[in-house]
Amino acid sequence: MKDKDNRQLAIWLYTGAFCIFIQIILGGITRLTGSGLSITEWQPLLGFLPPMNIAAWQHSFEQYQQIAQFKVINSQFILADYQSIFFWEWLHRNWARMLGFIFLIPFIFFVIKKKLTRNLFIQLSILFCLGLLQAIIGWLMVKSGLNDTAVRVDDLRLAVHFIAAVILLCYTLWMAFGLSIIVKPVDSSPIPKNIAGITFALLLLQLFYGALMAGSHAALTAPTWPDINGYLIPPELMHPIPGSANTYLLTIQFIHRLIAYMIFILVLIMYSKTSGWKLNRVLSRFRLLPLILVVIQVVLGIVTLLNSFNPRYRYYALLHQCTGLLLLSSVLLVFYTITIRVPFKKTDHS
Question: Where along the chain do its domains lie?
């Protein structure tokens, strides 16, 4: 494959990854504004248009009035209030539709121009399947809250929907890295590779628990730090009560905190074990990114937790989610750079 073709494909994939990143952030805004259940129908093709007149808006609002979220939480809503939450869910769904075109149209172009290798064609086909699966998971998540008992979507389905989007992002970035990264680590020791791999896996698990935290509002059960309601390990976890909602929520938060500490330590070790990368200007930046981002992420996590009852909580939570995605991407970059043996250019030395 020509270098020019590689550049075009890499730009396309990086653009797609950026749009997936924005889509995940829009999903966070949709959740934080309570907008996720505002559209009670799934119309993959025709749903890109919002209600076009007052009668259509009223019909949509009446459908929303049938579910528990309106009856229990938003019964005071008038049509204008409904339209404000409708916007975020509508934008979230339409951004997903736009993502489909961003991937599909260039894909057809590259196939016609015969710029795809067989291996890349297979990888991109898998990417499309993951995208379709994500859409289905998203609707199943929304459907879990469209009834007369639930006031929000199921937190486990929310976590699955979120982590599926994260995997889609990582898969896209991995392909883009393969078409654009042309440096190789100085040190071939397996230790940094193992640490980077473990850190990446823990970050995926951490993001899953972060979504559980968000979906279940587990932060509200213990908005304190460094203790958990005055304890290192809450009594509810030492002597759990079967079926207790409080025990469940504290367990989620305890695990989320524990994994965060583990990730912080692993990133420090990874930074130490890649000290040889300082010889290369590009690699030195790669190894520094996770260190900077993990410090920011830990601070944002603490600030978000301590402000659980503060109106500004939404902003902190969104920044926390955003930084978590950036941290995961940076660790993936380090892991890729260690794992894949690619040509090394002497001109990369500083």
Answer: 1-180, 183-350
